[in-house]
Structures are given as C-alpha cells and as structure tokens.
C-alpha cells in the first residue's frame, strides 16, 4: 500500500504579507539590483571582452546598418509614412534595446509585419479625417522641410497642440496617428510587464504565428504590386483589402508604367539571384553581400542621371530631410482613437521579440528575462514615439544575419545605429531620385522566407493535421479579412481545436498483452487477449462538464451495455409479469410462459461482471466529472457489475475523495481504487 504524504498547511495570508514587505522595502542593495535589472547593460558592459568581441560586433553592426538603411526606406511604404520616420525608428530602437534588452543577438528595429499593422491604422484614420490616400502625387521641391507638408494634400486637420489650435496636413496627421499608436502599444507592453502578463504569449502557438506572418506577407505583397508596375490605384481599406486591391490592379494594368515594370524585373532578378547565391555559399562568405544597398545606389544613380521621373513619370521617393525634428508629445486625443488597435500591435511585437530572444539564447547557451524583454520592447516604443518614430519589434532575417557575421553583444546594435545616424545627418537627400518600385522589390524579396511556408504545408499536414488546419485558417483570415482579425481568429480557432479535442477524445477498450501485466488498445494492436468477465475502458482526456456525455456514450457503446436502458427494460418486464401473475394467468402478455419470460427480461447475456476504468489519461476532474463517475458506479452496481478505477493521479484521487466517491470514511477505497490496471484485473478475478 502507498500512503500519501501529509503536507503542512500554508498560511496564504502570511505568505502574501511577507512578499509585500519584501517588495515594499527599500535598501541600497535592493535599489542597486533594481537599476541593474532594469538596465542590464550595466551588468554585462563592465565585463565586456574587448579583444575577443569587438571585431565581431563591429562587423555585424556595420552589415546590419547597411541592410537597415534600404529596408527602413522601403518599409516606410508599408507604414504609409515618409522614409525619414523609418530611419528615426531604426536609430532609436537600437539605442534603447542596447540599454534595456537581455538578448545578446536579436536585432530590434523596423519590421515588415509591424509596419503593415501601423500602416493600416494610419490609412484608416487618414480616410476618416478626409485626406486622400493617393501617395503618388509629385513630391514638393525645396528644402524638404517636414513642417510645410500641406502642399502635398489640400485637406487640413485641426489639432490642439499645447493649447494652440494648429492646422495639420496629411503627413503631419499621419505621423501623429503613428506615434500615438506606438505610444499606446508601448504603454500596454510596460503594463503587461508590471503585472507579469507574459503568459499571454503562450496562446499564440507556432501555427498561429506562422499563419499570421504568411497571411500578412500576402497582404504586404499585394500592397506593393502597384509600385512594381507603376499604376495609380486607391489604397484599399477595411476587410477584404487583398481581393479589392487585386481587382483594381487587373482593371488598371493597361496603365502600367513600362519604365517601372522593366526596373522592377531587373531588380527582382538581381536580388533573388544574389539571395540564392548567398544562401548556397553562405559557409564560404564571411558576411552577407549588401545586395539591397548596391541595388539602391545603382538604381538611384540611373534614375537621377536618366531623369526617369521627368521623362517617364516614374514615381520616386522625393525629398528626405537631414537632421532631427524637435521632439513632441503624442496627441492624447489621437491615443483614444487608436487604443484598441494598439493592443494586437503590442502583443505581436512582444511575442516576436521574446520568441526570437529565447530561440537564440537557447542556441548560444545563455538566459534571457522575458519580463525585462517586455519592458525593453515597451520603452523601444514609448520613448521613440516622442521623436516621430513608430512601432518596432525583433526581426528574424536581420537577427540571422547578425549572428552569422560574428555578433557577440548588443554593441553591434550601437554600431548599426551609428550607420543610420550617418545617413540621417548627411546622406538622406541623396535618395531623392530613388524609384518606389525599387523599394517595393526589396520588400517583396524580403518576404521569401514567409512565402516559402506554403512549401512546408504537406510536411506540416503529415506531422499534425489539426495544426495545419489552424495555420490555414489563420493565414486565410489574415490575408482575406485583415491582419488584426486574422490574429484573433487564429487564437480563438486554436483554442476551439483544443476544446474539441478534449470534448471528443480517443476512447478504447483494452486487451492484455500476452504473458505480461500490460494492457493496450484492442483496435490498434494485434494478438491482444481479452480478459474474461472484465471490460477495461480508457478515456484519453480530462473528465469535465463539456465531455461528460461523450464519456458516457463511448462507455456504453464500447461495452455494448447501457445500464439505464437495461435497468428500465428489466423493471418494465418485471412489472408486466407481476400483473399477469396476480390475475392468475401463467402466460404473460407476450404469450410466453413464465420461464420464457425470464429469458425476455435480459434480451442479451451480459458478458462481464467488472468494469475497470483506466484513469491514466484523466488529468483532472471537475464536479461534473466526479458526479459522472459516481453515476456510473451506481448504475452498474444495480446490474451487479463492479466498477474499479486504475492509475488515478493524486489530483483525481483528491477530487474523488472530496466528492464522496469512496463513501464517508473511505472504507471501501482499497476495493475501488488501484495503482495499476493489472492489480484491478486480478482483484476482479478473485472476487467474482
């Protein structure tokens, strides 16, 4: 016999008070630890091995900085903002994560998926404010000042800034929406860190994230096609944007700009070829080829000296100013408008950052603090929002490049920020003549990894059909409806799949493996022997209110006996028999004799006298589950069939005790509960 340990009762009130006293106390050492935890750079920077790490950090920082510049300019198309704001975002995110992040390798900055989500909110609010979303108007000449942007759009919007009623043009209003959205997303992330809500990320399974990323990639691809072929179509908004955009594209194909089409074809061929060669010979290359930068430089020179904008009306990036705009507090009234949109943005940004951080921490054998990562990403959004930046996240592609080029610490992030700063201060105006179709090519080629997920569908289906269905549903809803709705649908659908799998789990009757004390599913394995007069039933899920009926139906179906129907049938015939005997008629209503009636009372012979329930897969019982087992015990007992439970875990045993399954004094417990199926079977044989 096994005896349970007696656990000392814990005074929860005292525990909570002790934790509160520890958390509310303030000592110099505790204050120092708090600062060191909040700024992890203070822990690792003094221990920095300069001779060992500096070369790898500088090289990876330079490479990422070179990649960041063209990507930042390109992703501004997704966000519906000017390229200068993307450069601001890349600069500030790297500096802040260097101070607050716990991962040594992730590259935090502008990310296509986050840019798309920001751009969708910006476009919606611009439409509601009465602005025209057509961004293909000729760029205004001049000093490129960001303050005088009302020339690019005739609509103006009144904003109250610092108590002054000021007119704000399209670009001003767009960045105002983006910064308000970014600020709210950062606030949500910090609050999630304070209340330790990082567990929310557990509900975003790998299938949901992959499907969401693939669906969003299709949306990004669709949004860039108009730049590829140089047509002017309205930017679609709302649900079904992908379908509407493709309809507009096919309707306007005759208006395609031949110059943009040729440029796009050349750029895509060059970029894809370079990427494929880089992937094939990456073990021979010390660092990736800066193909995007080379393409941008060559394309800008060709566009400038060939006057592609003036001669062929090819759409170009326009003036990109240098320097920094004075910081400004995000508008509170705009925060209220985008508060709901900021929540999925905050969750997606955090989940991608933490999952990448954990992946590379495991690969390089160190640990990260998920809660501190929440704070780091949150402040990577809050602080830059005052400097005209938008939401950020860790990006897989840049992180892989970072590690492959020798990155050791986040010093590489500072180097990348310095490269972006160089462009911000001196080189930005040189990109005036860069064609938008070139930027669209860079974005589309960067989606190769996400779009390749379609090739993995057969393998995914072979591994797990339910996960494949979750991926397809999430991907389809993200692409065909909207990214936010797609994420929500994916989470809800994956949870429903789990619920359905517990509502209708596998059930089986077990047979004995010959000459052993082990039992397995009779339908799955050959050469199993049945145990005479004993049925062994397995239920592979927790038993709770949602699957109670399925448990009973499966039990009755597999044992070929419904005790309630059998009891009702017996009572019915016994009642009829008594009525006929009282009348003195020795023949029953069926025209049968008394002996024949006895046979009719039990139409089929019950072929077992004991039912063993294998509880090894039942992880918990709720009140309904306990009552269900009590009902089974009572119903089968009325038919002189004993019910024995085997392989119950301590949690299930405690639930049964509290529910009164074993009686008041637990006296019959040793005859009802067994630690193995074989013990229960031997007991049933010995007590016929």
Automatic annotation (TrEMBL):
GO molecular function terms attached to this record: secondary active sulfate transmembrane transporter activity
Keyword line: Cell membrane, Glycoprotein, Membrane, Phosphoprotein, Transmembrane, Transmembrane helix, Transport
Catalytic reaction annotation: bromide(in) + chloride(out) = bromide(out) + chloride(in); iodide(in) + chloride(out) = iodide(out) + chloride(in); sulfate(out) + 2 chloride(in) = sulfate(in) + 2 chloride(out); oxalate(out) + 2 chloride(in) = oxalate(in) + 2 chloride(out)
Start and end residues of each STAS domain: 524-684
InterPro entries: S04_transporter_CS, SLC26A/SulP_dom, SLC26A/SulP_fam, STAS_dom, STAS_dom_sf
Gene Ontology CC annotation, any one: apical plasma membrane
Membrane topology classification: Multi-pass membrane protein
Pfam families reported in the protein's UniProt record: STAS, Sulfate_transp
Cellular localisation: Apical cell membrane
Membrane-spanning segments: 53-75, 95-118, 172-191, 211-229, 334-354, 375-397, 409-427, 471-500
Keyword Cytoplasm: no
Keyword Membrane: yes
Main location: membrane
Coiled coil: none
Family statement: Belongs to the SLC26A/SulP transporter (TC 2.A.53) family.
PANTHER family membership: SULFATE TRANSPORTER
Identification of the protein by name: Sulfate transporter
């Amino acid at each position: 016999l096994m005896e349970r340990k007696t656990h000392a009762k814990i005074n929860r009130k005292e525990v909570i008070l002790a934790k509160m006293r520890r958390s509310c106390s303030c000592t110099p050492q505790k204050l120092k630890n708090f600062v060191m935890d909040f700024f992890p750079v203070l822990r690792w920077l003094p221990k920095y091995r300069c001779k060992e790490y500096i070369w790898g950090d500088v090289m990876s920082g330079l490479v990422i900085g070179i990649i960041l510049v063209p990507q930042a300019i390109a992703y501004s198309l997704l966000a519906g903002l000017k390229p200068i704001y993307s450069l601001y975002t890349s600069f500030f995110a790297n500096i802040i994560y260097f101070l607050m992040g716990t991962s040594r390798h992730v590259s935090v900055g502008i990310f296509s998926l986050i840019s798309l989500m920001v751009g969708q909110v910006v476009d919606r609010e611009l439409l509601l404010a009465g602005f025209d979303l057509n961004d293909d108007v000729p760029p205004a000449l001049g000093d490129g000042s960001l303050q005088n942007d009302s020339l690019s759009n005739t609509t103006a919007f009144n904003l109250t800034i610092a108590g002054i009623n000021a007119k704000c043009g399209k670009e001003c209003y767009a960045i105002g929406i983006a910064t308000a959205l970014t600020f709210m997303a950062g606030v949500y992330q910090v609050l999630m860190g304070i209340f330790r809500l990082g567990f929310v990320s557990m509900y975003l399974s790998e299938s949901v994230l992959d499907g969401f990323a693939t669906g969003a990639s299709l949306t990004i691809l669709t949004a860039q096609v108009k730049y590829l072929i140089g047509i002017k179509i309205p930017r679609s908004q709302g649900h079904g944007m992908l379908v509407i955009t493709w309809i507009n594209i096919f309707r306007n194909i005759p208006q395609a700009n031949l110059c943009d089409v040729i440029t796009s074809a050349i750029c895509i061929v060059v970029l894809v070829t370079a990427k494929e060669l880089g992937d094939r010979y990456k073990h021979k290359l010390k660092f990736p080829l800066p193909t995007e930068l080379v393409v941008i430089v060559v394309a800008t020179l060709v566009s400038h000296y060939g006057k592609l904008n003036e001669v062929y009306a090819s759409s170009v990036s326009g003036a990109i100013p240098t320097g920094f705009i004075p910081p400004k507090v995000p508008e509170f009234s705009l925060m209220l408008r985008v508060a709901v949109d900021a929540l999925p943005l905050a969750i997606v940004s955090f989940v991608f950052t933490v999952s990448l951080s954990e992946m590379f921490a495991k690969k390089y054998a160190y640990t990260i603090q998920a809660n501190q990562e929440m704070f780091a990403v949150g402040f990577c959004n809050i602080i830059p929002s005052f400097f005209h930046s938008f939401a950020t996240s860790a990006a897989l592609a840049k992180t892989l490049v970072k590690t492959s080029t020798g990155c050791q610490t986040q010093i590489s992030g500072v180097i990348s920020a310095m490269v972006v700063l160089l462009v911000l201060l001196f080189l930005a105006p040189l990109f005036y003549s860069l064609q938008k179709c070139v930027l669209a090519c860079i974005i589309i080629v960067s989606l190769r990894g996400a779009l390749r997920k379609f090739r993995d569908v057969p393998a995914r289906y072979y591994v797990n059909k339910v996960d494949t269905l979750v991926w397809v549903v999430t991907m389809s809803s993200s692409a065909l409806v909207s990214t936010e709705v797609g994420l929500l649908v994916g989470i809800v659908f994956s949870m429903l799949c789990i619920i359905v799998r517990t509502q209708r789990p596998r059930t089986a009757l077990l047979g004995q493996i010959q000459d052993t004390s082990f039992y397995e599913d009779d339908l799955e394995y050959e050469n199993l022997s049945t145990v005479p007069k004993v049925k062994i039933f397995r239920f592979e899920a927790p038993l709770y209110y949602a699957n109670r009926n399925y448990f009973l139906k499966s039990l009755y179906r597999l044992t070929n006996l419904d005790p309630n129907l059998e009891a009702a049938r017996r009572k019915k015939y016994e009642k009829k028999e008594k009525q006929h005997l009282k009348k003195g008629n020795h023949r029953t209503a069926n025209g049968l004799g008394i002996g024949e009636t006895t046979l009719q009372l039990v139409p089929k012979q019950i072929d077992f006298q004991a039912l063993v329930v294998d509880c090894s897969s039942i992880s918990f019982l709720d009140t309904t589950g306990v009552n269900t087992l009590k009902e089974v015990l009572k119903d089968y007992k009325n038919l002189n069939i004993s019910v024995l439970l085997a392989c119950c875990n301590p949690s299930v045993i405690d639930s049964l005790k509290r529910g009164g399954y074993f009686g008041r004094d637990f006296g019959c417990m040793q005859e009802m509960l067994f630690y193995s199926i074989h013990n229960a079977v031997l007991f049933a044989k010995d007590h016929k």
